[in-house]
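User: Study the chain.
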Amino acid sequence: MKLRILQCLLATAALLPSGTRAGEKAPAYWNSNNAISAFRLPPPPAGFTPEYLDLNGDGRPDAIRSVTRNDVPVLWLDDDGNMKPGDLEGDTVNDCLLVDRNKDGVYDLIVKWADLDGDGRADLQLVAEYPFKPTDEVWPNGHYMIVLDTDRDDIFNYIDWNTFRLECWQKSGICDFFPDYSGKTAFMKMHASTDKIGDLRLNWENPFLFYDPDKDGLTEMAIRLLDSPPHMKDPKLPNTYDHMQLTGRIDWVSIAVDLDNDNRPGQEFDFDFTLGFQGEGFDYGDQVHPLRNMRGLPEADRFFPDPRFRQLTELVYTDHEHAYDLIFKRGKWSRVNFVFDEDDDCGRWERVEFCDNLDPFKVGRSRGGFDNHSQSDPSGDRGEWDMDNSGGGRLYISRFDGRLHLYGAETGIWRIDQNTTYYQGWDRLWQRRDPERFATVRYTDRDGNGFFDCIEYDLDGDRTFETTVDLKALGVDDRCELIDVSGFRYGDYTKLMRRMADDLWRQAQQAVKVAERYGLNTSWYAKLKQAASIRERYHKGYWLQYYLYRDLEDRFAREGRGDLLERLNRAYFSADWKGMNKK
């Protein structure tokens, strides 16, 4: 036994790391080019000796010049004075990493960490990415992205260290994103390199805010604020430096809410509706946030394509605490957009993507239809548009369907995906499948009082509305109580969803009693009569009522009971089934 142990020890001594025998080249870091996620920068190969640079002549190393996977040159800059000879990398508290991905002598991927409050942990991570070849076009050539760790979980952005690319949309499962989009967090981003941005204190997404009001580590609300350069407002302008500078005004906003708070591990994002504003917006120049520990040694500036971000002493952006109030109190808006995820399949980190006020039947990305936006759901969402902001972003729950609607909207479209067949997930592009046939409902405010009074149905998918319901002709008052969300906090939204779901479910139970009183066998709809969650009460409460309403309509028409048909229509579209109690 002792001889065997000795043989094993001698064999081990003859090996270098990872099983390399003496005289052979040392292998690369174990997780290099594997078919699994690469979460960290690979260190240099075993046996490689980095070069230590003393940039200010104080006798201490200020930088490590080294290589990573495939001999890609890297440079670590010590921005907090704790680098030592023998270190293979800097720290991820205040230091800065530079990577020359194409080995042309120019560092084109830069990652900077900063401890803003001095507690020894990074609060900010900045990533600057530059194109390999010079270009006059600003967008989308490069990235300038800052992540703020406001929930103290140490998660920042995600770089795939197999490809050395910023992959801020990579995820596990449906929507467990590797970057820090879950919890209370924030980022600022522009799809451009820093040398194409005049004022680096500002950004395009400035910022994207994520809220975690119940403190479960997941996101229940997200507010996206955009500072749109002139070219993005008018694409006819060239995509060049002069027309891509930030304005210092937020002119586009979306507020996305998980109304029933049903997100969970495995379904980290489940936004149910989005309210958005466009227009003149508001100036945010007074929203100043001081920075600390951004500045490294001036002697290191020569390594950067654009060292200006290292010289920043402040960022200008709207933070978690002030964004909501600024949107409603300071913003000047000319248009309001609304979308509700009726098929409950939106797993994006951002929002329920807006639908376009275009052709209700054209399908596909950039084809001029309801789902023209590349990230919108091809079917399943309901969009509504107040094109002159006459409603001021207020909402109402209608009588005709018990659902939330946008006050002041001239028109709306619901492209039905009743059973979530065309699953949106985080991005429709991965599926590359659009519906060829779908049901559509169109809403119109004909009298201009801010409330929908006309509902049209195309249920057979022939792209012709075969049924039109005029609420005024039925004697149904379209006016409803207005809901002003300008003072809402998250709890107000969840109460609103519960109210809708409970009311729809209660009305559905009344509809069942009415249907059975008139001799209908409601057991056909047993699946719809069981609801185990707020969302199911909302969804099934609507559909159960609709099916029973149409069955009753069919029966009364067969029996020639015009009087009952008239009462039925008033009962259904006014959400008052009591009118059907008498036969």
Summary: The chain has a mean pLDDT of 93. The radius of gyration is 29 Å. The first strand starts at residue 15 and ends at 16.
